[in-house]
Specification:
The protein is of the alpha+beta class. It is built from 13 helices and 16 strands.
Length: 436
Amino acid sequence: MAQQKPPSDPKALGTSLRDPCRIARSIELSDSTKARAFFEEHFLPLRISRLGEGEGFVTGYYEPIVDGSRTENEVYKVPVYRRPSNLFVRGTTQSSAGLPNKGQVFRKIGRRKLVPYYDRAEIEDGAIADRGLEICWLKEQTDLLFSQIQGSARVSLDDGSTVRINYDAHNGYPYTPVGRILIERNIIPKDQMSMQKIREWMEQNPNEADELRRQNKSYVFFREVQLSDKDEAVGAQGVPLTPGRSIAVDKSLHVYGTPFFIEGELPIESELSKTPFRRLMIGQDTGSAIVGPARADLYFGAGLEAGKVAGRLRHNARFVILVPKSLDPVARGRKMPVPDERPSETIAKLFPQTAPLKDPSREQTNAARPPEVTAATNTRPAGQAAPPSPAAVPSQTPAIQAAVAKPVPLPEPRPQVEAVSVKPHQRHLRRYRHRR
C-alpha cells in the first residue's frame, strides 16, 4: 500500500510572508538599490505560467471619474443603487459576502421563497426603483456600466463635492463582455478593441447601445466609502491600491501581498507602442475574470488618461512570483494534490488529445469587481501585514536573471473525452467516465 502524502497547507504562503513584511517595516527602503537587495535577500524567484504555456496574460483597470448629483433631475437620471435588503447570497460567510461573484444570489419573497434576482434589463426598467436605494444619479447608463466594470468610481457632484463608491454586491448573473459581442458582430475589429472604442460606439449609437448593454445581465451594487479625493480606491485586500504597483490576481491561487515581477512589451505610451515593462508589483485585488496562475489586471489609477491606458491592455507577459525563502517550494510541491492516474495507453488511444480551448479570462473584463471589479471588502488574511510600496526592480536584477527554479512537474492532464463508440471496451469506458 502506497504511503499517503501529508496534506498541503493552503495558508503556507500567507504565513511565510509575515516575516519579510515585519522586516520591511523596520528598515528604510529609500531607493531601488536597497529595495532590490531586500527582495534578493528574502525571496526566491519562480517563473510561473499555465502548463504548456510560456507566458501569462495581463489587462488593465482604473477608477472612473464621472459626473453626478445627489438628486434626480433632467440631466442626472441614472440611479446608482446600493445593495438591496432582499438580496440573499447563499454559500458565503459574512467575511466573504462582498467578494465578486461568490455564492448563488437570490431574491427573497416572504420568509422562505427564493427566486433569481432581477437582471440588468429588469433593474434598468425600474424593478427596484423608489425604495430609497439610490446613492446618487449619473448622466448616462454608459457611465454606470463602466463604473460597474471597474468596481469603483469617483462621482463629481453638481454641488462641487465628491462621492466615492466601491463594489458591494452583484445580482448573481455571469458577466458578459460587451466588447466580445461587438467583435462577434464585426462592429469593432478584435485588434482595435478597447474600452475607449466601446464608449465611442455607444455614444454614437444610443439605441443599439441599450440592447448591447442588456446582453450583459450582470449588475453591480455599490456602497459609499469615506475616502478623500487624494485617496486611491481600496482593493480586495482592504488597503488602498497603488497606481502602477497593484495588481488583481486569482484569489483561489494566490495570496494577497505576494510580490510578482512582470515583464513584457505593453502599449503604455500609445496604442501601437511596445513600451518595455519590467516591474515589481503586489497582488492586492481580485476579479471574477482573473483566472489562472499567470493572469493579472494592472491598476493604473483614476481618471481619463488612466482609463485610456488600462483599456488597451490585452497582452502577453512573463510572470515571476517571489516566494519567501522560508518556504521551500520543492518540498511544498510534493504535498500538492495531483490529478488521478492516467488511464492505460490502450484506453488513452480511444480519446485523442484535442487543442486547448481559448482562455475566456482573456476577454476584456476587469479586478476586483464582479466581473472585473475592484471589490471593496476587507479580506486580508488574519495576521498578514500590508506590504511596503516596493521600488522598481530593473530587468538586470541578478535574482530575477538567475536560473529560476522550475515549478514542480505535474502529470499531464488526462485526455478529453470525445464522442466515440467502442463496444469491446465498454467496461473500461464506464470506469474512465466515473473518474472524471
